[in-house]
Amino acid sequence: MRQAGRVVATVLDILSRRLKAGMKTKELDIIAAEEVTRLGAKPSFKGYRGFPANLCVSVNDEVVHGIPAERILRRGDIVSLDLGAIFKGFQGDAAVTVGVGEISPKAGELVQTTEGALEAGIAAARPGARLGDISAAIQNYAESRGYSVVREYTGHGIGRQMHEEPQIPNFGLAGTGPMLEKGMALALEPMVNVGDWHTRVGGDQWTVLTADGSLSAHFEHTIVITDGEAEVLTAREGVYA
Ligand code: MG
């Protein structure tokens, strides 16, 4: 799982650096497939429940599950990139939201808050804590800053399958739910909206958008519960060092 995580982190880094205005979102999908394969792994989203691409690309008011296609990225857009890879039978899954060139202060604050919510969730992921402690940490971080957390989509256990038990909502009550134990592998993934938390599914039957059209951001890491702080398997260079 460490190797799968490293592949995902490396490729998300490459995509974040290559992404620029004027690019079609499907170009990112091609790069993702090439780089995952070059690193000896296999993209895991393609064909998952019929998803047609290797990478999810969700722009601005798109929350998750955007299908990379002909859309052209513009300066000021925020782009969520979600990637899964399988290496020797084990899964890695992570997401980042990056700006195209300079983004508005409002968008920048949303992106920072969403990444902060993920960090708060990771900090709560300790042995002896409850699953609800993670959910509550994410929710409190985002809502205390005036944002909402998406409720219809959740984080998840991960291992040989991309989506395993338990579901990990981005909202909930501290002190509730299953006990966290050393060795559990979890994908935490806050989706945070500027406006209301409600979402809708677009005409392609995949893309999830905010119901009110407000901006949304998404960060995800695959982590493992250890004796102390959780180990982040999809840590990017220089982050969570
Ligand atoms: Mg995931």
Short description:
The protein has 241 residues and is α+β, with helices and mostly antiparallel strands. The protein contains four helices and 15 strands.
Give structural attributes.
241 residues; Creatine Amidinohydrolase; 5-stranded antiparallel beta sheet; 4 helices; 15 strands; globular; binds magnesium ion
| Category from helices, strands and their pairing | alpha+beta
Characterize the largest beta sheet: strand count, sense, and whether it forms a barrel. Answer: 5 strands, antiparallel
Strand order of the largest sheet: 8-7-9-14-15
**Backbone shape:** globular
Which CATH first-tier class would you pick?
Answer: Alpha Beta
Q: Write out the distinct hetero groups bound to the structure.
A: magnesium ion
Q: Quote the CATH topology.
A: Creatine Amidinohydrolase
- C-alpha termini separation: 18 Å
Count of DSSP strands:
15
Oligomer: single chain
Textual characterization of the structure:
It is a single chain. By secondary structure, this protein is an alpha+beta fold. The protein has one domain (2-232): Creatinase/methionine aminopeptidase superfamily (Creatine Amidinohydrolase), CATH 3.90.230. The chain contains four helices and 15 strands. A five-stranded antiparallel β-sheet has the order 8-7-9-14-15. Helix 1 packs antiparallel against helix 2 and helix 3 packs antiparallel against helix 4. The longest helix has 19 residues, at 105-123. It is globular. The protein binds magnesium ion. The site of magnesium ion has 5 residues, from loops.
